[in-house]
Amino acid sequence: MAHRIRVHQHGGPEVLRYEAYDPGSPGPGEVLVRHEAVGLNFIDVYHRTGLYATGPTPFTPGLEGAGVVEAVGEGVTDLVPGQRVAYAGPPLGAYADLRVMPADKLVPLPDGIPTDTAAAMMLKGMTVQYLLRQTYRAKPGDTVLFHAAAGGVGLIFGQWAKHLGVTAIGTVGSPEKAELAKAHGYAHVINYKEEDFVARVKEITDGKGVPVVYDGVGKAVFMPSLDCLAPCGLAVNFGNASGPVENLNLLTLSQKGSLFVTRPTLMTYTRTRELLLACAKDLFEVVMNGAVKIEINQRFPLKEAEAAHRALEARETTGSTLLIP
């Protein structure tokens, strides 16, 4: 019998229940995957609490995993049993040891990418890819600001930015996280608990500001971040770790320098199979050539998903966290 985590009602980490179930067989266009590792991401918290819509309860959370194809359904020709695969994106259901899912959401893994590394990097790494290479295509010589530099997305971002010749400024909440960010490519690291990050950004940029702020924190930093931008700069809000941004007056954008704001998602940037494979290919290349190293700093048994969520929400984690079935 297989097992999965179920959420019967939205709420705190305690609503995550470990239950036995029958995953069934793959239908047309589907694949049965046996997970070797499942990625933990902050979007899982948003789904658990109901901040992001999930449809009716109960549901199984999780958008990222990697493992081996157990069986394929009718019409699936590009995947075979025994093949290693990974994914990041809907449908929900990664918190399981076995699951059936659409074949076109799966990415075959090259030999140079270990399965657990894939589970730790697909969502975070492809997020960095679209942020850095598409939403604002950073170029050599650019100086950019990234919030939560010691998190899973942040550590990948710092390395990839440095590889591209981009000067990255990162914000963190402790001296330990500052050292971690510095070791992962950030040219400047600001401890926002000890320094005014707006003043430091202005100092670092000689008062010019940055062309882009990448913000996965949300409410606590979004408005001050606008003061870090150069005229016509872009604020990229891609997460709500401190809560969602609310009541943004568009006149504020004009008053602060004709600014731009976007709220992108990985799902939009990988909405077709062609886009998905291109995004993953870019990520695989920088990992296999050593430019980006994936840090798996926490591992929890799948049955202890509640403890993993508590650690994530308390900001006690760094790098990537895996749930192991």
UniProtKB/TrEMBL annotation:
User: Any keyword Hydrolase?
Assistant: no
Q: Which part of the chain is the Enoyl reductase (ER) domain?
A: 11-323
Q: Which Gene3D superfamilies match?
A: Medium-chain alcohol dehydrogenases, catalytic domain, NAD(P)-binding Rossmann-like Domain
Pfam families reported for this sequence: ADH_N (PF08240), ADH_zinc_N (PF00107)
Q: Which CDD domains match?
A: QOR2 (cd05286)
SUPFAM superfamilies, alphabetized = GroES-like (SSF50129), NAD(P)-binding Rossmann-fold domains (SSF51735)
Judging by the UniProt lineage, the source's domain of life is Bacteria
Q: Which UniProt keywords apply?
A: NADP, Oxidoreductase
Task: Please state what the protein is called.
Answer: Quinone oxidoreductase
Q: Which organism is it from?
A: Benzoatithermus flavus
